[in-house]
Design goal:
Low-confidence stretches: 108-123
CATH topology of the largest domain: Glycosyltransferase
Shape: globular
Structural class: alpha+beta
Largest sheet: 6 strands, mixed
Distance between the termini: 54 Å
Mean pLDDT: 89
Radius of gyration: 32 Å
Helix content: 10-25%
């Protein structure tokens, strides 16, 4: 049926650009040379001309960027081609019908080209390796269409691409670029893992290269320091290098306990006495604990009388680590150590979590960086997205960001704030629809939250918006009643204002439930709206903010604050949202109710260890802490205040307890590893590829669930779509179940998959891991967690992973 002798043919297509010339600017980027030394300052000249050679109109400008070409090898930047984006291309619109294929065959020419490999590298010691040298968004052109910009090089020995994107008015665009190199005769390049864990035994690998036309004899010295101490085993090395040769060398290292980083200083010198080439390199590795120290118990109390607290080291805790942390502060608005520890170490990275961490830590730099990226997180309608790669934003998240930022006094850029507010207005009016993560009747709750965010503006709310849902606070959860009360508190001109406000206040009073030092709500079982980021802890803290300045609640506020503090577990509230609201609530409470400063001294004594603080008039919101070592056996901690006032004392039991058996509290997770490419069967070696399978059994429906699995130091989770990563080895990854990740995160040291909704049942996620560094690596436990109901979690212990050279 097949004629193997029939002739063959090949069809070709050519693209023809029509009408581009009238809109194209010719951009020429020139430098005095194409080769420079590290830290040189390179003058760059940009010349922009119209198609006829004349200068562009007055007011024309360029945007200029200089980027390491090693970064562009991983992922090209197509956004520079501005004219290509402006000129939409037509697709192939010709359909051809022919019988030629019956008599001739289509010739296959095979793979004609291979993507070129790329370098990119990592004098005083070279230590500045940023991939972005310079970014200037607006550089005006002179009357002749020219501009000069100085580009400062860093310490990378690599190629840099300098790109100029020109624009003039609404119809003239162009792009030009140039490439320069920074080089030297002798080069040191680092290949150490970015992240290692305490106790890891690994080889720290480096490369030395001779870029000159003559052979070298090179003497190499290295020094590695961690926690102020030099690591052993850094013996000098002598290497012979032919012209153009590169060789790898390294050191056997054990990551020390208690360190947060390892700082490397390497020096390479040619042994020839006269024309000695040299290089010096500084790099740093981050050290994380394989078994992290965690707060397992914590309490906060006001020291109105001497107290004695029994203390004992947890039975399974690693000796020599942890202890009892004692912190004293004059006011509640000072630091909350459990909250600070929780937020500063929080590993997950959606927009809400970044915003909550920035506000909870009162870190304006984090907030500023997040607001700089906010345009990337807004969808087409103006709603905030949990991750920038998602298609649709979320009305609940948008309401939360507007409310928490206003409460904290943190600014949102005006343009983005207006877009977010307009999106909420469209949502309330029904012009834009957003579905909840859980298919349930929560539309009224979400609209009240949107109204609460909008009520913070100076303008009055439209009374017609209340007609878009049924106003029945008795049937609402506590979070919605608090939001409704805040709407009425700020908007006195709404219909039936006084009656509705009294009713909302009465509902909140009737739901309060005090048991000892803990405050709860009578509706607490139905108040945990985890798919809306709502918890009872968040409700307690928002109630403090709502009623802090209400005269009728003044006598109740200290008890409510104590009740909210009593809800803490391990020194913190249960979610990032609750902790952000809690920090703001205690600040507002302290500013109004805590005017008296303690005097004298506060002391804590545990065995032979003692902590004493003498109060000063200017202590204010300052906090003072000391960690007392665990006693050999059970002992009593004695707390006393010698002087006036009643300072606050926070006690935190900190220990490192390794996980020995799987833990299941709503989720059960298992982890298996299978070889995909293994040089020696049964033995893992550098360069091998493994498939990691994580099987999860969910015992209930839940929204926003994360699967977090640790990678061995130097390992790379493939599948990021970057240059140099094989797509063939990841082709067999399976996704079993009816859930699909909203976002996957492959970072140094971890693979994470985030799910917007996980129903009850079993699902499986797989990823592909390449082992890039030899050694024996300890791993934290694999964890599955419902981010807004963290009591729902599962953990699976991971054994050490040994990789041979």
């Amino acid at each position: 049926m097949v004629d193997l002798a029939k002739p063959s043919f090949r069809m070709g297509l050519a693209e023809v650009r029509v009408g581009w010339t009238a809109h194209e600017l010719a951009v020429k980027v020139t430098t005095p040379s194409d080769t420079f030394r590290t830290r040189d300052k390179v003058p760059v000249t940009i010349a922009v001309r119209r198609p006829d050679g004349s200068a562009p109109p007055a007011g024309s400008e360029i945007a200029l960027a200089a980027v390491d070409e090693g970064l562009l090898e991983l992922l090209p930047n197509t956004s520079w081609k501005l004219l290509d984006a402006m000129m939409a291309r037509r697709g192939e619109e010709v359909d051809t019908s022919t019988a030629q294929m019956q008599v001739i065959g289509k010739r296959h020419f095979g793979r004609k080209a291979v993507a070129p490999g790329g370098g990119g590298g990592r004098s005083p010691s070279r230590e500045l390796f940023d991939t972005l040298l310079v970014w200037k968004a607006r550089v005006p052109l002179d009357d002749g269409g020219n501009a000069t910009v100085e580009v400062p090089l860093n310490d990378s020995l690599t190629s840099f691409r300098i790109v100029a994107v020109a624009s003039s008015g609404a119809g003239l665009f162009g792009t030009g670029e140039a490439t320069i190199r920074s080089t030297q005769d002798l080069m040191l390049l680092a290949g150490v893992p970015q992240l290692v864990r305490e106790g890891d035994r690994y080889r720290a690998a480096f490369t030395v290269r001779n870029a000159s036309p003559r052979p070298f004899e090179v003497a190499i010295t290295a020094r590695a320091t961690a926690a102020g101490r030099a690591l052993p085993g850094m013996e000098p090395q002598q290497l012979s290098l032919a012209a153009g040769e590169a060789r790898e060398f390294g050191y056997e290292v054990v990551a020390p306990a208690g360190a947060t980083s390892i700082a490397w200083q390497l020096d390479a010198v040619e042994t020839a006495p006269s024309t000695a080439a040299r290089d010096a390199l500084k790099v740093s590795q981050r050290v994380a604990p394989a078994v992290p120290e965690r707060t397992y118990q914590a309490t906060i109390l006001q020291l109105t009388a001497p107290q004695s607290v029994p203390v004992e080291r947890p039975a399974d805790a690693i000796p020599g680590r942890g202890g009892l942390n004692v912190q004293v502060q004059a006011r509640l608005a000072g630091e909350l150590p459990g909250v600070n520890e929780y937020l500063s170490r929080y590993p997950f990275t959606c927009f809400e979590q970044k915003a909550s961490v920035a506000i909870g830590l009162r870190d304006k730099l984090r907030w500023g960086a997040l607001m700089a990226a906010l345009p990337d997180y807004l969808d087409r309608d103006g709603f905030v997205k949990y991750w920038s790669l998602m298609r649709d934003g979320d009305d609940v998240l948008t309401s939360y960001v507007l409310s928490i930022a206003h409460e904290a006094g943190y600014a949102i850029p005006e343009r983005e704030r207006q877009r977010m507010e307009q999106a909420l207005v469209a949502f309330i009016e029904g012009r834009v629809l957003r579905n909840s993560a859980l298919p349930t009747a929560d539309l009224a709750i979400r609209k009240v939250a949107a109204l609460e965010a909008l009520s913070r503006k100076q303008e009055p709310l439209n009374p017609k918006w209340l007609d878009t849902f049924q106003v029945d606070p008795n049937l609402w959860p506590t979070s919605a009643v608090i939001d409704w009360y805040l709407v009425l508190k700020r908007q006195p001109k709404l219909p039936l204002h006084d009656a509705r406000m009294r009713a909302a206040e009465q509902i909140l009073r009737s739901r309060l439930n005090f048991q000892g030092t803990t405050m709860g709500f009578s509706t607490e079982k139905t108040d945990a709206l985890w798919w809306l980021m709502v918890s009872a802890d968040a409700n307690a803290n928002k109630l403090i903010l709502a009623m802090n300045d209400v005269a009728g609640w003044r006598e109740d506020m200290p008890r409510i604050v104590r009740g909210s503090i009593g809800r803490m577990q391990r020194g913190r509230w249960n979610t990032t949202v609750a902790n952000a609201w809690g920090v703001l609530a205690l600040e507002k409470f302290s500013a109004r109710f805590e005017a008296t400063m303690p005097t004298g001294t506060t002391s804590a004594k545990l065995g032979d260890a003692t902590f004493v603080h003498a109060w000063k008039p200017d202590d204010g919101l300052k906090t003072y802490a000391q960690r007392l070592a665990w006693p050999e056996s059970r002992a009593d901690l004695a707390l006393a205040q010698d002087g006036s006032g009643a300072p606050w004392v926070t006690l935190s039991s900190i220990a490192a307890i390794p996980l020995k058996d799987p833990v299941s509290s709503g989720y059960r997770v298992t982890r298996t590893i299978a070889p995909i490419r293994q040089q020696t069967p049964g033995t893992w070696r550098r360069g091998d590829v493994a498939r990691v399978t994580l099987a999860v059994e969910a015992q209930a429906d839940m929204a926003w669930v994360v699967v977090d699995d640790a990678l061995p130091a130097g390992g790379t989770a493939l599948g990021r779509g970057l240059g140099g990563e094989s797509t063939i080895v990841t082709a067999g990854e399976q996704r079993i179940g009816t859930v699909f990740p909203a976002f996957e995160e492959r970072v140094s040291g971890a693979f994470r998959a985030y799910y917007r909704y996980v129903p009850k049942g079993r699902f499986v996620v797989e990823y592909t891991l390449r082992l890039d560094n030899p050694g024996t690596f300890g791993l934290p436990a694999t964890r599955v967690e419902a981010m807004y109901a963290p009591e729902m979690f599962g953990e699976f212990p991971a054994p050490p992973w040994t990789v041979q050279p």
